[in-house]
Amino acid sequence: MFPAVLTIILLAFQFGLYLHAAQIAEAAAQEAVEAAQGERATASDGATAAQRLLAQLGALRAPEVDVQRTATAVTARVTGRAQQLVPGVPLGVASTAEGPVERFVPEPAP
Predict the structure, then answer these.
(1) Model pLDDT, residue 90
(2) What is the pLDDT of residue 103?
(3) Listing from the earlier edge strand, what are the strands of the sheet with 92-100?
(4) Contact indicator for 82, 61 with CB cutoff of 8 Å
(5) Which residues of 67-77 are buried (b: 16+ CB within 10 A; e: fewer)?
(6) Could you give phi then psi for residue 96, rounded to 5 degrees?
(7) Which residue in 24, 42, 104, 109 has the most C-beta neighbors within 10 A?
(8) Residue 92, SS3?
(9) Which has the minimum average pLDDT: 11-15, 85-89, 106-110?
(10) Could you count the other beta carbons within 10 Å of the beta carbon of residue 100?
(11) What does pLDDT average to over the chain?
(12) Band of the pLDDT at 92, cuts 50, 70, 90?
């Protein structure tokens, strides 16, 4: 009976670690989009901002950041793994954020 109860408790904690890692991935993806949205910003600026946030928070294992910027939109994808508490249960997380690129639009002539 004790091993079953212990397994259930460990699975509950593992689920919490997974949710935490998913929130961190989401925050990093959003941070990357916000950094790359500026009129003069680049995709590299977004990736740097996401990596900085991931280094500060540190709960996402083997994080990878991919930021794509076009003339009108920015897309950031952050992937990684949640901390593993239960052996044999590797949990990958991924999050994607999107946003428009800021641009100057002149006022129409009267």
Answers:
(1) 81
(2) 84
(3) 61-69, 73-81, 92-100
(4) yes
(5) bebeeeebbbb
(6) -125, 140
(7) 24
(8) strand
(9) 85-89
(10) 10
(11) 91
(12) very high
Residue type at 41 in one-letter notation: A
Q: Which residue has the tokens 């949205």?
A: 37
Q: Would you state the structure tokens that stand for residue 69, as one six-digit string?
A: 């910027």
Helix axes 2-36, 43-57, angle to 10 degrees: 150
Tell me the H-state helices in 40-96.
43-57
Q: Which two tokens stand for residue 63?
A: 């994080």
Residue 76 to residues 37, 57, 80, 102: CA-CA distances in angstroms?
11, 18, 14, 16
pLDDT in tens, 39-65: 889 999 999 999 999 999 988 899 999
75 DSSP 8-state letter: E
Question: By three-state DSSP, how is residue 50 classified?
Answer: helix
**Amino acid identity, position 13:** F
